[in-house]
Amino acid sequence: MKRLSGWAVFDLDGTLVDTLDEITAALNRVLIRHRRKVLGREEVRDLVGHGPNTLLERAWSRTGLAAKRGEATELADEYSTEYERNPAGMSRPYPGVGAGLQRLQQLGWKMGVCTNKHGEAARELIRELGWDSWIRVIVSGDETFRKPDPRPLWMALRRLGAVPGRHLFIGDSEVDLLTAQRAGVEAVFLGHGYGQAGGFQVRSFLDPVDFFRWMAQSGPRVVVKRGARRA
Questions:
Q1: Same structural domain for residues 70 and 116?
Q2: Backbone angles phi, psi at 93, to 5 degrees
Q3: Are 58 and 141 in a shared domain?
Q4: Is residue 223 over pLDDT 60?
Q5: What domain range includes position 127?
Q6: Percentage of the chain surpassing pLDDT 90?
Q7: From the record, what ranges are coiled-coil (predicted)?
Q8: Is 176 part of the annotated catalytic residue set?
Q9: Domain check: are 152 and 46 in the same one?
Q10: Average per-residue pLDDT for the chain
Q11: Catalytic position from the list 11, 13, 18, 142
């Protein structure tokens, strides 16, 4: 007996959605409150990818004295409060992403998100974009280990009910590719986001429309259940 078997887990910021303006605005409100200089969009681009704590540590080092021990966590909470006020306010899906996700769901892909950002902000953003019927699982940096630890990706696949078949992790940074490598999952790099592929040699796309076209054409893997006769 044959069935389609495919699970795709995505990074969120810089992969599915351009959230950099919203991140920059929330970060600058915190910097202003602490009498630090504000940072431009391209400066913030260099700081993202490892979750709120690292973002605030890097921002503090960039704008003056480094954060004291334990201070980064408090600053990250302050930043998250600012960000969660309106996570979808200036955030925009990359071209073709909404239609692409819908098409993959129709083709039988089971999809989730694995992100280092706070879970409530990620879930609210997915709801605001109307993607929550396609993306059923969100594993966030505040509920488990952070990427590039492979455990968040394993958790996402487990929650999706993944069994042997085709497993993909799609992201826009070296952190995402390292996560996939450590998890033993096929990686795809999307070059329209915030990061770089580093030294990883993986399938890459600059245009999300091309990526979703490839996903639709390659499709989930056909799995033959044990004991069934192959056609």
A1: no
A2: -65, 145
A3: no
A4: no
A5: 2-18+92-224
A6: 70
A7: none
A8: no
A9: no
A10: 89
A11: 11
